Amino acid sequence: MDQATQLEIDREKGNFRYETDYAFDAGVGLSPATIDYIAEVKGEAPWVREFRHKALNIFESKPMPTHWATKDLEAINFSKIRYYLSQGQKPSRSWDDVPVDIKKTFERLGIPEQERKFLAGVEAQFDSEAAYSRMKEGLSKLGVIFVGPTEGLKEHEEIFRPWFGKVIPTGDNKFSALNSAVFSGGSFIYVPKGVKVKQPLQAYFRINAENFGQFERTLIIADEGAEVTYMEGCTAPKFETATLHSAVVELVALKGAKIQYITVQNWSNNVFNLVTKRGLAHEESEIRWIDCNIGSRLTMKYPGVILKGRRARGEVLSIALANDGQHQDTGAKMIHAADETTSNIIAKSISVGKGRSTYRGLVQIPKHLKNCKNNTECDALLINANSRTDTYPAITVRGEGNSVQHEASVSKVSAEQIFYMRSRGLSEAAAMSLSVNGFINDLVREFPMEYSVELKRLIELEMEGSVG
Amino acid sequence: MPSLDIRNLCVSIGDKPILKDFSLSLPKGEVHAIMGPNGTGKSTLAKALAGHEDYTITGGEVFLDGEPLLGLEPDARAKLGLFLAFQYPCEIPGVSIANFLRAATQARLPEGQEVAAVEFYKKLHAKMDALKMDRKFTARSLNEGFSGGERKRCEILQMMMLEPKYAIMDETDSGLDIDALKIVSQGVNLMRGPELGVLVITHYQRLLDYIVPDKVHVMWDGRIVKSGGKELAFELEAKGYDWVSKELAPVTKS
Question: I want to staple A220 with a disulfide (CB 3.0 to 4.6 A). Which of A116, A189, A312, B151 is the partner?
């Protein structure tokens, strides 16, 4: 493996914090005044402010989804959270202009280095706002837009407003409503017709403050025949109290476009990570989610694709690792809405110690459609005797001429396998991480090189001390 | 002289004693065969030496070139130079033979040193050629869906790559047809030399036609009841294990 491309990121790497003074603070708790403060600070148009207020009402009217999801959600105390914290609203275009304490954080996380090595553009968000945002010059000349939502809705309203909140309506679920009320930060990306962005664009989301909620909002539009890969990474320090991260990510692939969205999440174990991600795939377009969930206290995330145009393709490749005290409740949704659409879901979960992983899948192919295909595979690996996994696949396929394939498996790393590997000189931890990596190997191969190396390293670190 | 020295080894599974005062000295450079009927403790000896946790050591000592072996973790034993070719090698899904051997090679290097990829593959391919293995074989998951012959060949490949000082071959001939048996034996014979001691555990004399031992030990009820030259294997084959139970066992019990 090429040494130069290895990223030195590990589970503990995000566990640090520098003292930071915030110039803008919406205070603790959520009310219409919080929203007015955010809209005021950002100088938003009245329609955006109204969008937020409506969303707050929807959020308050919706019950917690504990009737199907975990009761642990009740541990979130919305009145104790801080909803907006920043040092300013305008991201710097140069690392030199980023405030020192924030810059130190991102340098320690290796972000400027990654930008130099292999990225076409980077945005680095610190609590509520991006502190840094920059794209290679060539791309802006081609008409590519890579900004935050404030700038996107203000400067490029004609491009972003028509799709904003359309793929994921405010009322989709309680947390999409919360995000719609208080969103700040995230990426708004537009790739013009036929433009193929070769290197990935990356956003890095950093939570720094305690009792804080991060609510970034991302909207990526790939115009006809355009191609783009977007990657996001996330960390937060370990706090005594719970932290909330609740994002909304909308993707729009117009005719023949391709969007690949890659997440490597490395949250600390106190983060509630409740994210809604969905893509809208037009004719002959392709949307692919690659989603790796490591860390957090509770992650609920089911990336989906609405296959709206003929021959559109949707794919979710997902890896989740649940360690002690963690619950990875993840899955995928594929909504077929046109003929000859195809979707593929491969979900692999690893439960370590008392960790719990849950797969929830939803595949719909209505009766009137022809020649649609779905393939779903979900495999769970249990490491210890007290590890837990649950699978809830819901596949509704009507009509003839549509085909569905579903496979699921649960396996365990056996004591005999570990002994066999140790008898060749591998330590117990090395043997365990080798077999875990073997379990996800066919998925990791689909990742860009830089991320597969990082992922393997993260898994090795998670596996340490998990045996015995 | 350097040797794998087993002194008065007693091993139990649960409460049941299996090895009873087992002693054997295998000098480096020699090939010894242990023969005996099923249930006399041959595989227990192999697993206990490798450090399997289901086998409880209740007495005795084992030295590898003077270093005490018992009490070490299985991986530490491997790094001292002990290798066990399993009777039933298990499947490790998703882990290719090449990656596995690379990790095992890496584990033997001092901290901070990396396996040199080019040399590693050169060596791997040379050993595979010797075992008449297809190059594509290394990309396959370890033992997953392998035939009996492929599994055993893969064990020998690992042994050739890891270059142990002492190798224990636990019923390596079981499940092999005659062609596979020849290839596997050829691999062992290639490694044979002053730097390697081999303990061949087998039920049948057949394997010893191809791997000719320096010494043969007959095992019965957890201990060695007779030792001799390679001709002992023929005598055993001719007289059958009844001979052992009726004539050899009672003598040593007294």
Answer: A189
